[in-house]
Amino acid sequence: MQRGDSRLLPILVIAASAASTIATLVLAFYGIYFFFFFIPLAFGLPWSIKKLRRNKARKQWNVEDLR
Fold first, then answer.
1. For residues 31, 33, 35 and 30, what is the CA-based torsion angle, rounded to 10 degrees?
2. What does the pLDDT look like over 13-57, one tens digit per residue?
3. H helical segments located in the chain
4. How far is Cα 67 from Cα 14, in angstroms, rounded to an integer?
């Protein structure tokens, strides 16, 4: 048990450091794109879908009134 743990520890340390390095690079190089594209898209899309549905319903209501 002790021997297996000692073999596994360096692999875990290497994996954790590689993951943190990759995360740092992604945040450094793609942080601008993330903040200016994905966040507005994630928060703006539900509102725009509601607005489109509301406008579509309003247009259908107006068409029914004109008939």
1. -10
2. 999 999 998 888 877 777 666 666 666 666 766 666 677 777 766
3. 2-33, 39-66
4. 71
